[in-house]
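$ ./design --mode recover --in tokens.txt
reading tokens...
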């Protein structure tokens, strides 16, 4: 996705980080009967939001681009592994399992099938009478 196509307002359109509630109201709350002075509550709200915003921005500036580069390389390696290694190996495994399934299915039909059929005929002639 190019920078001109990016939605700069909604930066989590798939709600990947919906679990990260970091608003003041989601973290700090005073129950009824334990309220601080209004100016303390307002000042705490301002300090929390300022510290959270400044700290996040500093960390994003210092670490965001290098981490994005690292994660981009990580997901490129994972994609490479799946395209060139894992998926072909799984396909070979499925082909071999299909061959083995035919082999064992034929063996069961040839060997166990007649035995089971004979046992079924033998036991079907048993009659139990209640006296």
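writing sequence...
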């Amino acid at each position: 996705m190019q920078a001109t196509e990016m939605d700069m307002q909604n930066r989590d359109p798939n709600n990947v980080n919906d679990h990260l509630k970091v608003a003041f109201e989601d973290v700090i709350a005073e129950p009824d009967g334990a309220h601080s002075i209004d100016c303390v509550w307002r000042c705490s709200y301002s300090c929390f939001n300022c510290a959270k915003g400044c700290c996040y921005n500093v960390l994003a500036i210092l670490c965001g681009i290098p981490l994005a580069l690292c994660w981009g390389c990580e997901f490129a390696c994972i994609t490479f592994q799946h395209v060139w290694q894992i998926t072909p190996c799984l396909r070979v495994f499925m082909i071999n399992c299909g061959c083995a399934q035919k082999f064992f299915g034929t063996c069961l039909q040839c060997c166990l099938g007649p035995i089971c059929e004979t046992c079924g005929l033998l036991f079907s002639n048993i009659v139990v009478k209640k006296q």
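exit 0
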